[in-house]
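Slide 14.
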Amino acid sequence: MRTFTWTRSLKDNNQDAVGSGSRFVAVADGATPLGGSKAKADATAAFSSALVRGLERNEVRPDGLRNGISEAVEYAQRDCEVAGVTSTLTVATWDENVLRIATIGDCTTLLLTSTGWQVVIDPNYEGNEERYLGRVANSVRHGASWKDAYASINADLKQGRKARNTDRGTWIVSDSVDANKVMDHFHIVSVPRACIKACLVLSDGANAWRDPFQLVDAGDLVASSAIDLDSYWEQANQMQREDADRSRFPRLSNLDDATVARVIYS
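Slide 15: predicted structure.
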């Protein structure tokens, strides 16, 4: 078994955080509040990092996954000094019998199994970006500029952010929402350990290398070295600079962070 982690950011403080132990890997992707100040952006980065530290302190395992994540969330909440910060969180943990994945938010997990690739995502986020981008494309077909087409969905995107962690919206880890309550909204999948060859956990920034930028596929990510990942990172950033209006590679936002956690079992 070989475990590997990698992360990069365009920000002073990386709001992605990645961690690993002998039986787990985890990726957290902090989400700065709308209109957030630099202090809130810094606090968001600290919050996602604290989530991962909490998991590492307790060495989360499959048979204690729920408690392990709850304790990590409570640890991060105690560490947080600024209100209103949030983060996605995906944890993959295993023993001799099972690989268990818990995810909330928009990270993607790719499993190489004995029968091919399996994708694990939070179903509450599945298809959201495609629906918004469909509206953008429809506006362009009816004569709108790309700038105006993206602007036309901004209000709904902001409303969706405001509705997080309510009955009207999606859920995410927060500095203030009870850890046990948020655990009820994690998507948890269990797969027999014997059929897993590799596990990849990708933040949304790294997953964008696959779609929309089409730089890599899952097999590339299994085989990639840190130097390879650095190259993908630079290529994706160059591509988005050359596509400033987001017309060639439609996307709701530009890349800022990218994180990969990888476990190869055989």
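Speaker note: The mean pLDDT is 94.
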